[in-house]
């Protein structure tokens, strides 16, 4: 989970953190599947700025979804 004041700031922080995770994974022989990975933008604010984020892992874009089911719990953008 990343907390930021703007969506652009959150996007930048997420990409920096994903680079750190990718570096760690390569060093520990762990592979993350970019096609199975998803990103959800969650906010309580109604903003007029963009709602699309570009987050990358292994230089491939992660698909943004409106809701995500994880361990039986559904997380949505609200």
Task: Characterise this structure.
The protein has about 80 residues and is of the alpha+beta class. It has one domain (about 5-75). Helices cover about 25% and strands about 20% of the residues. The chain contains one helix and six strands; from the N terminus they run αββββββ. The protein has a two-stranded parallel ribbon. It has a two-stranded antiparallel sheet with strand order 2-3. Strand 5 (about 65-70) and strand 6 (about 75) form a beta hairpin. About 5% of the residues are buried. The model has no long low-confidence stretch (mean pLDDT about 85).
Quick structural overview:
With 78 residues, the protein is an alpha+beta fold. Helix content is 27%, strand content 21%. The strands form three sheets. It has a two-stranded parallel ribbon with strand order 1-4. Strands 2-3 form a two-stranded antiparallel ribbon. Strands 5-6 form a two-stranded antiparallel ribbon.
Mean pLDDT: 83
Task: Tell me how many strands there are.
Answer: 6
Query: How large is the share of residues in beta strands?
Result: 15-25%
| Gyration radius, rounded | 13 Å
Task: Give me the number of helical elements.
Answer: 1
List low-pLDDT spans: none
Record the strand order, biggest sheet.
1-4
- Helix percent reads 25-40%
Largest beta-sheet characterization: 2 strands, parallel
Between the first and last Cα atoms, what is the distance in angstroms? 14 Å
Query: Structural class from helices and strands?
Result: alpha+beta
Q: Please, how many domains? A: 1
Shape: globular
């Amino acid at each position: 989970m990343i907390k930021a004041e703007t969506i652009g700031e959150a996007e930048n922080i997420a990409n920096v953190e994903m680079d750190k995770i990718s570096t760690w994974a390569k060093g520990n022989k762990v592979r993350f599947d970019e096609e199975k990975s998803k990103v959800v933008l969650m906010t309580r604010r109604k903003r007029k700025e963009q709602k699309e984020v570009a987050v990358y892992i292994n230089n491939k874009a992660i698909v943004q979804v409106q809701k995500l089911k994880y361990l039986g719990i559904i997380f949505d953008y609200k």
